[in-house]
Write a structure and sequence with these properties.
The structure is a homodimer of 264-residue chains. Chain A is α/β, with parallel strands linked by helices. Chain A is built from 7 helices and 11 strands. At the A-B interface, β3, α2, α3, α5 and β7 of A face β3, α2, α3, α5 and β7 of B. β10 (205-216) of chain A pairs antiparallel with β3 of chain B, so a sheet runs across the interface.
Chain lengths: 264, 264
């Protein structure tokens, strides 16, 4: 594998996160690393972006082959700043986002800032990969993810025509030797059920603590990313920006038939 | 049309927004209205949600058929609070989100808090509709949207098997008589190009002002929501939570063939 690539990295746990340090190590394996990551943790920020407002950027690491900036904004802002400003005329070979502290499988992918950034990068026609470990601990051990991801990324870099393809890759929190392989999967149909516990009240405004429980509602388990992860596989799901529900198009056309110029 | 329905409403511009007042008027046409909307503007918040943290809720309107709460959190939080706590054992017939000040066509749908809330509601198996007007002005006139939406919502309410279908409906900013009809469309392939203008610097941290320009990259214009809106139609796009890129599954399977248990 050539080591003359330029890799853009980001995450949603912030530039100080242990998972981001692991990402710097991983990306350095493939070439020059440029990172723009949130100043503060931005978990759950989905594809949020800053519109007509200010962002604050500071260079945090300035070495020969590794340059890292912090940005006071969302993960998508980090990609926009990198692609539209910092690296505007530079060729980027690959975008890596993570390594995330916690799962981005199932419905988590829609709330994830890490995957929001990876998707945003794919709009620029670059292959992008989000990497996540099923361990939310600040001190999680990312060495298995780093070691295994090197193999996966080499395969991706050797493949043509992946412009704009975005990979959502999740790792079970098990030892390298225990991983059974990878499984290309689909996003598990799932949701978070939340509970709201009232804590206090002031001037009629009630403060609630929010807690969440994951619900798996997938009718076809064996194809799903949750199944892969629960059975010792690394799950890989290609994801996309297009939210159009093509399966519903005909049904929706028929509702409005009388006044629709249908062309789908 | 029966008027004994229960309608849950929210938005991303905040409960004080003019578009939300128009939504209360629209929803009241169909029955009892319960609203949970952000305390502050939450535009661009996408599907961000609050995890294991606090939210603050206050009743703002308490009338016979209209109850409105403000919630200090994201649009998705508003739906979670309404569905998992406030209305846990109540039947909700329809969820309406908006009326948004500004377009949620094209790539805007992925950043939109209004559409994030509508999508979240669809997870609960309820038909949900996001309504947006192509006018970002605080004082935009929503009367055409209200009048036209009544007809569209009546059609949707008369249709069976729409559990979990989410409609992204955008209105051009033109007079009622000028609307040519509705056009069921697909999300326009598009992106925002951002510019970052440095304003000031402190301790090595640079403050940039962010500005955005919309780029339409759709190869098949006539099927797209942007085309519909630019040509005097109301655009309707069914959207979904599943981000899996099914068109890329086979390609991705082939990359990892040697170590994949493929089952897609």
């Amino acid at each position: 594998m050539k080591k003359d690539l330029t890799i853009l990295i980001t995450n949603d746990d912030g530039y100080r996160a242990k998972g981001f340090q692991a990402m710097i190590e991983l990306a350095s394996h493939f070439g020059k690393v440029i990172g723009v990551a949130p100043k503060q943790a931005q978990s759950g920020k989905s594809q949020a972006l800053t519109i007509c407002d200010k962002v604050y950027v500071k260079k945090q690491i300035d070495q020969d082959e590794i340059t890292i900036y912090s940005l006071d904004g969302t993960p998508v802002d980090c990609i926009k700043f990198a692609m539209d400003h910092l690296l505007e005329n530079q060729k980027i070979d690959l975008v890596l986002s993570g390594i995330n502290h916690g799962s981005n499988a199932g419905v988590n992918v829609v709330y994830s800032g890490t995957m929001g950034a990876a998707l945003e990068a794919s709009l620029y026609g670059i292959p992008s990969i989000g990497l996540s470990l099923l361990n939310i601990d600040d001190n999680a051990d990312f060495q298995t993810v780093v070691r295994y991801s090197k193999m996966l990324i080499e395969k991706i870099l050797l493949t043509d025509n992946l412009e704009g393809v975005c990979f959502n890759i999740n790792f079970p929190d098990i030892k390298f030797e225990q991983i059974k392989g990878v499984r290309v999967s689909q996003q598990t149909k799932s949701m978070w059920k939340e509970s709201f516990t009232p804590l206090s009240e002031q001037d009629g405004e009630i403060c609630y603590m929010v807690q969440c429980t994951f619900q798996n509602m997938e009718p076809d388990q064996s194809k799903s990313d949750e199944w892969a992860l629960n059975n010792g596989y690394v799950s890989i799901v290609p994801i996309q920006m297009d939210k159009t529900s093509y399966k519903d198009l005909q049904k929706v056309c028929s509702i409005f038939e009388s006044e629709t110029t249908i062309n789908v």
